[in-house]
Amino acid sequence: MTIENTNQLGLGLLRQPHTVVFGPGQRAQLPHLVAQYGARALIVTDARMGQTAEFAEVIRSLEGAGLEVRVYAEVAPELPRENVRTAAEAFHDAGIEVVVGIGGGSCLDMAKVTALVLARGGDIRDYYGENQVAGPVLPIVTVPTTAGTGAEVSCIGVVFDAERGVKVGVASNWLEPVATVIDPDFTLSAPPGLTAATAADALSHLVESFTDLAKNPDPDEIREHLYVGKNLLTDIYCRHGLELLNRSIEGIVADPLDRAARADTMLAAFCGGMALNTAGTAAAHALQSPIGGLTHTPHGFGVGALLPYVMRFNLPARLAVFAELGRLLGVADPAAPELEQARAGIRRIDALLAALGVPADLTELGVAESDLPHIAQQAMLSTRLLANNPRAVTEADALALLRRAFRGDRSFPEAL
């Protein structure tokens, strides 16, 4: 049995935007926030959002506040590096003073990396990795229109580099947004598939951050690394976010126009972003990255499909935390043995994923059994994510876990 580690330092650590505005209709505050950081704004979004009445309304409000607005509405899913290059070339002489991302995770990541390249020059490849940004970037304001990624509050931008065939993170405190406006009304028009995939992503962020390794970092480690482990403050956000999703997921599936459920889901996604910004994601995300590259399936469905198997793998190292999860979700009897409570918590997460229509195994994602060794090998390259997992993952462990996920084997480990 793996020994369960704890936050021995009693550490609480968060990284967060200067201003967070949440609530239905709160997009009305966007012009006032943006104007604090500059008079010439670049708005980045995708083609779908760029053609909506809501987007046109936002642009009118910004221009009505006296702002000079430029728009880049060509952000593609998974944020190709080429998007960043195109925008940087188009706007490098435009005198942009603030960058606003409106949309899903790729649009918000686009705002971060575009603000970086416009401010500091070069190619986004110059900044791949952790803490490769030497100083300030243009102010970044985020406006999420989906409830899942948490990118509105994180200091990481993820780019797909087609030449290398991988998604690469640009991670730096300098990419922390100065403000975010979270208006759940934006999500009312989201297609069912997008709603489900992003909610699954939010659920995976909260579960992974809550069950992460408690690293007990020293001051140098906190200065040098973004992901420094689960701690007292990230746990607060995880607990609240999980409680919100426990009551909202089935609600948004039953009625996509349920405004209360939409608001709860979007607040939960924010909580997930606040937690992962310090605790980080772990094995489910490391394993999904090569799967996404192979199958081109939605990220949220990929991590959601993997999460049941990762939870079971991690159970020996996180028995007490999964037991707390069971109590938190209202499915565990506090008087029952800890293992029984933990299994109840994991099964409830399974049920929430099923309610969203998340694939139950890897075959539903289009993974072939012959792909599994390659996926395991590639996942091991995500060292920054695997370092957050509460149980060490070898390539052999990854392959065994993937084989269980391929078969749909959700049996629990016998030795605890």
Report a brief summary of the structure.
This is Iron-containing alcohol dehydrogenase. The chain has helices at 30-35, 47-50, 53-64, 81-91, 105-120, 192-211, 219-224, 232-254, 259-276, 283-295, 299-314, 319-328, 338-355, 372-379, 383-386, 395-407, and strands at 19-22, 40-44, 68-72, 98-103, 129-130, 140-144, 156-161, 166-171, 179-182.
Task: Tell me what the structure shows.
The protein has a six-stranded parallel sheet, sandwiched between helices. It has a three-stranded mixed sheet with strand order 5-8-7. The mean pLDDT is 95. It has helices spanning 30-35, 47-50, 53-64, 81-91, 105-120, 192-211, 219-224, 232-254, 259-276, 283-295, 299-314, 319-328, 338-355, 372-379, 383-386, 395-407; strands spanning 19-22, 40-44, 68-72, 98-103, 129-130, 140-144, 156-161, 166-171, 179-182. It is α/β, with parallel strands linked by helices. The protein is globular, with a radius of gyration of 20 Å.
**Percent range for helical residues?**
40-55%
Strand order of the largest sheet: 1-9-6-4-2-3
Alpha carbon gap, first and last residue: 5 Å
Q: Oligomeric status of the shown chains?
A: single chain
In terms of DSSP E residues, the strand content is 5-15%
Structural class by SSE content: alpha/beta
User: Which spans have pLDDT < 50 for at least 5 consecutive residues?
Assistant: none
The overall pLDDT average reads 95
Topology as a string of helices (H) and strands (E): EHEHHEHEHEEEEEHHHHHHHHHHH
Number of discrete helical segments: 16
Number of strands: 9
Shape: globular
Organism: Leucobacter chromiireducens subsp. solipictus
Domain Alcohol dehydrogenase iron-type/glycerol dehydrogenase GldA: 17-184
Domain Fe-containing alcohol dehydrogenase-like C-terminal: 195-406
Pfam family, one: Fe-ADH
